Amino acid sequence: MDHDEVPSTPRASFRKFPGQLSGVGKAIGVLTSGGDAQGMNAAVRAVVRMGIYAGAKVYFIYEGYQGMVDGGSNIVEADWESVSSILQVGGTIIGSARCTAFRSREGRLKAAHNLVQRGITNLCVIGGDGSLTGANIFREEWSGLLEELAQNGKINKEEVKKHGYLNVVGMVGSIDNDFCGTDMTIGTDSALHRIIEVVDAIMTTAQSHQRTFVLEVMGRHCGYLALVSALACGADWVFLPESPPEDGWQETMCTKLSENRARKKRLNIIIVAEGAIDTQNKPITSEQIKDLVVTRLGYDTRVTILGHVQRGGTPSAFDRILASRMGVEAVVALLQATPETPACVVSLSGNQAVRLPLMECVQMTQDVQKAMDERRFKDAVKLRGRSFEGNLNTYKRLSITMSGSEILKSGFNVAVINVGAPAAGMNAAVRSAVRFGISEGHKMYAVYDGFEGFAKGQIKEIGWSDVGGWTGQGGSILGTKRTLPGKYLEEIAEQMRTHSISALLIIGGFEAFRSSVIFAEARGDHQELCIPICVLPANISNNVPGTELSVGCDTALNAVVETCDRIKQSASGTKRRVFIIETMGGYCGYLANMGALAAGADAAYIFEEPFDIRDLQANVEHLTEKMKTTIQRGLVLRNENCSENYTTDFIYQLYSEEGKGVFDCRKNVLGHMQQGGAPSPFDRNFGTKISARAMQWITTKLREAQGKGKRFITDDSICVLGICKRNLVFQPVAELKKETDFEHRIPKEQWWLKLRPLMKILAKYKASLDVSESGQLEHVHCGHEEPAAI
To answer: Pick the catalytic residue: 70, 176, 236, 554?
Structure first.
């Protein structure tokens, strides 16, 4: 969702929405239906607060459609404070239930009567495809239902006229990610967090005993969770409903497991979706697989069924931000809707919020099931969307070892290096690059300890099994340094000559980008640098030009948010306490701003949005007002370099003095804990996928020039690979140079600044929201561009 120039302060001129967007006189009902998912509460909170902010009345509909049919105390007006402290809670606070009554016209008649009595003609439904289909039927029948109610004398003609049509906007809350048209449904990322926590724990015990573990994850009709967790932990085998194993898979799988053991791998992990089937649509169960491994291979094998653990726990940072963005977008969509507007779903495409016709998405979701029932599995995978297909192909490439004799040697040597500060997910990226490179026939070289190591000749050939088990490791196994190559150009060129390096993959942060700029400029003096060079952005600050997200920033954001949750809890217990928290990020305010959005903070001070003493004063006054309500705590984030003079200590002392007698203050500097830890599922998967894509690009470049003795001197042979809105894009560093503020090490334009007003609105500040880019209904399509879906 896009917003305009962000007024920098709570004092900002409050520009009401353009005429059609005022919510005055409108009533919105919000319900959660079907299976629960982490992040539903964040969505409910965003809908309630955005609705109230726009001047509408917002009602909770408790227990899903059942509450709508039963009415009475199940439909209650919500206020600002009724959604306080729910952002970090899993499940849904307004309850969810399966409802048979709503499936009958009689039930829907009761529901319509209950809504009309309260003037609710806008519905925001958070649930799966069943819940959304139900809402659409209700919308289509609405005028007929009102006529019938008028005939029965339940309502008068005036009311029929006044509440003539019902608007419906859906958000998909489902841990399975089984809804077509959206890249990620609310809850999927959190479910992956639960699965990966378990897998990481199981791996340590399996290593000790040389065991094989069969893990069953949720997904009755959709293998997304199984597929992505297999990618994220480097599982030996995965069973999915959409892509059943070929006949004779028993033999193939056992061969693969024993080959892996022969390579000194002490454990095997097999992941099974609960809906796994074979090509004849017969179920494949985890017990069956266990018995097979025990009888054929005699391995000590255990089954772990994760079950409802996957639905539980606190939502991840990704799900909180996704749900907050979608919740606000849903309210805007409802307020812009006309009687002719079809029911729509707000969803995510790459990194962009979009609106899609609800029934198109539902139809496509049902088509997948139909394709599976008819054993058209290739179609099923295609219909699942670009992201699913991409994940499946990457998994196959990286997990199926080919013997040396099967691979045609390309004659190219490709080097991989880590540069800058360590970031979680770097190792997953290295593993992916090495394996993808080997499968393309290249010789892969690892450079240790950054450019210093490169100059000293710390370069070794690295093989397929050398990178086994790297996906889940935090930090950088190759070792990384911030040193730029400038003063070592002679030595580096010599090492490249010695090892005949034909291409270079640089994985790192802003220094990786700076290095590529230095290399581009030095090509005239060193012909060894006239090779394809690709920069893969990996750092926690998310400040690399040419990408909206860097590998590692999701893990760091989760670390910030987890700490904020704990601190908030402590502040709530003590009452009337405000915490000032300092985050890392250099001059880039990404962690502070997104951390504030995901943790429900009151303010975030960042370098990109200058502030002065009056802004600080206004924030203190805002917190003083807040202490008069039932929410007696405050949370303020500050980016480490947001201001030279308004330091964390200064802000802490100012707040302490100004808040005297109203609240007391504490400060907390998060420091290097933001750099450490095991990578989140998002960073493992993102690192794996973009690294494979980078190697594909390198391979294509090398093959095009093969035998032509061509040197790479054009701008498009030194690129940064990143996400831009919806697509993965290679951008020449020569172009990106113009878009970079080198002094502060940030891109001149940053997409997330458009989410600033969201954070302010949800924290009860007045901010203007530009909705000029919202409103266009798109169609569900399978594009040919390069998907940035994660």
So the answer is: 176
